[in-house]
Amino acid sequence: MTIAGAYLEFGSREARGNSPTYDKLCTAIAADDDLLELLASLPPAKQQPNLLFGVVRFLGGPVTVPAFHDFVVDNWAAVSSEVLRRAVQTNEIGRCAALMPVLACLPQPVSLIDIGTSAGLSLFSDKYAYRYGDTTIGQSTVTLDCDAVGITLPAALPTVAWRAGVDLNPLDITDPSDAAWLEALVWPEQEHRRERLRAAIAIARADPPRLVRGGLETVSDLVARAPEGTTPVVCHTSVLYQVPPAERAAFIETVQRLPGHWISVEGPDVVDVGDLPAPPDDSALNVLALDGKPLAWVRGHGQAMFGL
Predict the structure, then answer these.
(1) For 138, which of 42, 104, 250, 286 is 20 to 30 Å away at the CA?
(2) Same domain, 26 and 69
(3) What does the alpha-carbon distance between residue 30 and residue 36 come to, in Å, rounded to a whole number?
(4) In a shared domain, residues 256 and 197
(5) What are phi and psi of 236, to 5 degrees?
(6) CA atoms within 13 A on the CB side of 2
(7) Is 165 left (phi over 0), alpha (psi -120 to 50) or beta?
(8) pLDDT tier, 97 (very low <50, low <70, confident <90, very high otherwise)
């Protein structure tokens, strides 16, 4: 797919209905020869829209048309430098709304191991409250809303006895610059996400998570560290699409052999979970699976889940 095509697809499948600003910006960039030429000078993995948009916002630039064009062209040295050194590490805690019902149904307490953890905010599923329609589970300064269709909801939150995360470049939640990068990745119109991100950061700063710098090869060691008497649970959400297919396949083969359980929330073309019923619509959806068995379609930021 061309760079222009990738931006048009991101705008129509992900930004549309969620961020009018990014939707318009994607359309403009797809027709902007100057920006397309600059993007072509970057490695393919660094050409993605949400990375470029996050960097521009992190640098204090505008994300409106045509000011975005001028800022990127005039500041390309700084923009490209940040793009090359950063990664999309959204750490969207809304995705915990899809993880929580599965975590709560496993033998308790659990040892939670998050792959591609960013700053580790998804390790605190037991510290957030959840509102699924008329049902609220837990009490917290952070409440995550999720439309749950065809999902059996637990009576209580999971008990997390031990938590650890791994990332190629883990973010330090106590570092103001890393916290600012997480905020820059929140889409412009979604102030509610920004507010709950700040509240989640406050929760994590009170007890910073155990984070390890490394790749998928660390999963076996982390599972081995889980305290006796706990259920090890390896989870990852919207991470494996960034991993080369051979490395991804090796990870899946490894995690399926490990003790405990494996929860994945990834695109259907990223983790093969077998035959799936038709999705509820044509937007970009992930599949929630437990030990490779599909359970639900999930919207990208955990806004809704549809049981299979």
Answers:
(1) 286
(2) yes
(3) 7
(4) yes
(5) -160, 145
(6) 9
(7) beta
(8) very high
